[in-house]
Amino acid sequence: MNVIAAVDNNWAIGYQDKLLVRIPNDHKFFRSVTMGKVVVLGRKTLAGFPNGLPLAGRTNIILSRNPDFTVPSGIVVHSKEELLKELKKYNDDDIYIIGGGSIYEMMLPYCRIAHITKIDYKYQADTYFPNLDNMKNWCIVDDSEEETYFSIEYRFLKYQNKTPLAY
Q1: Which domains does the chain have, with CATH numbers?
Q2: What pLDDT sits at residue 87?
Q3: pLDDT digits (tens, 9 = 90+) for 74-101
């Protein structure tokens, strides 16, 4: 299982249910990596998508505690246990956890690979990704050259979890 996120220097990912910044190359990378795959997200993350609809070209699995919540062309699950059961239907390498904060935190122990766009800036934020640099079981296995979008410097990092949990 994989996780994919864009974080700032404090591992922040969002503010007031919105992304901190939009970087076209990061969106292009996200699209290329997740297209044709399974994406797992929370209801609030889905609400932030255009028209609140699932991402096209991907199997969208949405976690919501609301038993009446439905999504056209999406699979809705209502608990971690139900989510893990649903994920067993798919190839582990094709699953991408895409947010938000509580979903990342809950599913990170099951992930083997983390694709992190690290933005060299500290934004005002209220939602964070777990700091992989402070976790002994996660290590950087790939690091891109630094890129720039206007004045924003960022790089693409790939982390590997040496001890992912089975599900």
Answers
A1: 2-161 (3.40.430.10)
A2: 98
A3: 999 999 999 999 999 999 999 999 999 9
